[in-house]
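Hello again, I could really use a second opinion on something today. I've been staring at a protein lately and its backbone has me curious. You're getting the sequence in one-letter code plus the fold written as tokens. I'd be grateful if you could look everything over and explain what you see. No rush at all, and the record is pasted right below:
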Amino acid sequence: MTQNSHIHVPPFTGPNARLPTRSERGLIVPPPGAIRTGSEVQAEEEARQALIRRLGIPTHAHAFYDHFASQMAEASGFLYGMVNLFLEEQTFIGLHNPAEDSGHPIIGRTMSRRDGWCPDVVRRKKALPLHDVRASPRFYGNPVVDAVGIHAYFGAPLIHEETGIVLGTVCIIDPEPRLLTDARRHRDIVKGTGNAVMKEITAAAPPS
């Protein structure tokens, strides 16, 4: 994939033109402290977008970040890896998919910010290790489970140290659940990758 390619396709292949959101399925229960005022959410959004522009982070498919996504997937043995910016949609500037002839769904470059588990990581501002999403009704009620059959997720936030702003996430997902005893290793893979991505973003940023 070339550095300047820009792919904007539905997040999942298949017959469903539209997937139900978690709220439509009646399966969301906001965690304590998760409810914020509209002005707080808007201020956070504006600060995030301004920082992404100031840092000069690409907002499209980028081979450099694809490499990070592939490293995560290969180190963990997961089928999918993402470097995910929180723009108007979740945007995978780095993406690793299984081989096209593998029989597994191929994930596109964007996904609604209502779906997946990365929104929880951004809100929490800390890593989220889900070795088996079926172990939690809150996390199992997710369109990604139905669309791709994902049962394992490990994600970590991309936090700009100077401002504390969360730019997005890095994550790995897989249709096979993982052993709880392996959870720390997978969590460390995504956290280490997140740190490496932020180090590169900071180093490449233009002078203020």
Q: What stands out?
A: DSSP finds six helices and six strands in the chain. Residues 14 and 147 are 8 Å apart (CA to CA). Residues 1-29 have pLDDT under 50 and may be disordered. The chain has one domain: 38-204.
